[in-house]
Amino acid sequence: MRERLPVLISVPHGGTLVPVRIRDRVCLDDRALSYYSDPATQDLYDMRGIAAAFLQSDVSRVIIDLNRPPYHLPPKYPDGVVKTKTSLGHPVWKEDRRPDLACIHKLLLGDYFPYHAKADRFLLSGKVSVALDCHAMVPFGLPGQPDAGKKRPLFCLSNNGDDEGHARPGTLPTCPADWIQSLRDAIRDHFAGEGSIWINHPFHGGFIMNAHYWHAGIPWIQIEMNRSLYEEDGSSPETGSLTDAGKVKELNRVFRGIIHEWTRVIGVR
Known about the structure:
Blueprint: E1 5-11, H1 30-35, H2 41-44, E2 51-56, H3 101-123, E3 130-137, E4 155-158, H4 177-188, E5 197-199, H5 207-216, E6 220-226, H6 245-266
Parallel strand pairs: 1-2, 1-3, 3-6, 4-5
Antiparallel strand pairs: 4-6
Helix pairs in contact: 3-5, 4-6
């Protein structure tokens, strides 16, 4: 039997489900929920049977966002762990059915804390040497974001450092700079001439990689893949995410090859 790569793959935003007990509180239909997810990421980054550990959530990120601190609660944090508005400013909850603290507590207990506890178990198992938190991003920066209206790269790799993965003043990178540079180079080998791969821009990385790096000391990298690589033009909250299954399958094949090569280069096999 082929030995598995010592990698944890985390896919926190691929789900579209809303718990039955709160479905009647939510404004968004199934098409909008698919658009506001990280579409197809559960298939794009599927390395079950190859990676030592694979972790995903089926619950929509607009209902419970695993990549936010658990204390970023509404109404102070509309884009926090339980969102009040989508990335395009649409309300998540019906006006008279917004979640109270008891509802939020149940969501955290049922979906948020179990995900992070499972990540901890994987990281402390002795089978994982590096973790990847895997996402998808829309092609252009959204209103209110630092890169609003600007074209995004094909991939953004993040370790909370600078544009080469080194430490920024007052911050702690979540992996060595040469590791994230090696991953950038491995991706460029497959996407030469098709776009660019940026480090820590437009994202420095989210709560998952930072919190678990501090807790377990296992290196993390956040990966953002541009949805234009597999999503059709015309995708919207009204139409849903129009993904091309053939492109998703091919990108998964390429991703598996990239991670195989990268782990060899950084010597964590």
